[in-house]
Amino acid sequence: MIYDLMKVFFIQDALINAGTEKSYLEILPKLSEKIIPVLIYFYPRHDLFEQFENAGVKVIFLDLKGKYDFFNGIIRLRSVVKQEKPDIMVSSLLRANIISRMVSLIEGTPLIGTLVSDSYSKEARKIKSPLVRLKFNFFWFLDRITASIPKHYISNSNHLVSSHSKYLGISSAKVDVIYRGREIPDNCWNNSVNKTCRFLAIGRLIPLKGYMELILAFKKVKKKYPCIELTIFGEGVYRKDLENLISNLNFQNCIFLPGSVPNVTNRIFDFNCFIFPSWYEGFSGALVEAMMAGIPILASDIPMNLEAVQDKKTALVFPVRNVDALADQMIYAIEHPEEMAEMGRRAREIAINRFDINLIAQQYEEVLWNVYHRYAQKA
C-alpha cells in the first residue's frame, strides 16, 4: 500500500524526565520518513527539550501559566492546529488530554488518546484530604465525559484497558495495546549479587513509587547484611520526606538520592539488583530498561508489572506495599546470586523479543496509519 505523508501532533503536559515523555523521545525518531511528528507541550518544564530537538523532532511550546488554564490552552492549541494542519493528534496525560479533546471536537482533527497510568485504581483513589478528593473526583468526571471524543486509544498495558473501560467507559474495541519499548543496550549485566549488594531504584520521588516502603525494607535487611547500599535515581516532591527518613535512620552513608542524572540507564550496570516497588503505574519504561540490561529484578505485584515479568522466572515479585515481604525478597536475592543472575538473563532475552524500540515504533506507526485512513482522509 502506498501511503501519503502524515503530520502528527504528539501533545503533552510538559517535557519532564518521566516515563511517557521518555517513551516518545525513544519512539518518534524511529518513525518512518512518511510520518512528520510535531511535539507540543503546554507547561514550563523543559527537561527533555534539547533531546527532542537533537533527535530532529519539531517542538512547539505553548507556555501556559496557570496549572489548569484549559481555556488558554484550547485557544493556543487551536491556533497551532489551524496553522500547521495536522492530519491526526495524539495526546497524553490529563491536562493535555482535556485540551486536545476540546480542540479535536471543535476543529474535527481526529484524536488518539493514550492510557499510560492506572490513575483511577483503588490505590490512586486512597486520598485522605477532602479537598484533594473533591479535586480528584472533578477531574475524573471531566475525563469521563470527554473520553468518547478520541477516535481511538493506545494503551501501554492490557490492565489499563480493563481499568479505563471500567472507570471511563472506554470500549476495549477502540484500544490497541502497545508496550513501552527501549533500545537494546550493547552491554549486558554481569555483576554478582552478594552480601555487599548495591540495590538500585529509578523513578520520580513521589509517594506512589513506593520508596518509603523500600527504605523501611532496606532497614530490615541491613540488620542481617550491614554492607548493603541503596541508590534511588530520580527527582520529585517527595525528596524532603525521604531525606528526613534517611536521616532519622542514620543511613546517609548507605542510602543515596543523586537526583536525575543523564543517561541513567547506563548506570544500571554498576549495581547488583534493581527494585521496582511502585503502588500503581502504567507499563514502566524503567522496568523494561532493567530487563534489557539483564540485571536481577525485584518488582511489586501490580498487574502492569506482571505483564512484563514472571515471578521466579524473570524476577522476584512481592505484594505491593508489603515491607516485610520486600525485605524477605531482598535477602533471598543476596543469598541466591546464581539463581538471580539466571532470572536476569531470561528477563533480558524476553525483553529483547518483546520490547525492542524498533518493534514498538513499527506497532505505533501501524496504529497511526490505521486511524489516518479511517478518519483523517474522510475529514
From TrEMBL:
The keyword Signal does not apply. This is Glycosyltransferase involved in cell wall bisynthesis. InterPro entries: Glyco_trans_1, Glyco_trans_4-like_N. GO terms for molecular function: glycosyltransferase activity. Residues 19-181 form the Glycosyltransferase subfamily 4-like N-terminal domain. Residues 197-349 form the Glycosyl transferase family domain. Keywords: Transferase. Transmembrane segments: none annotated. Pfam families: Glyco_transf_4, Glycos_transf_1.
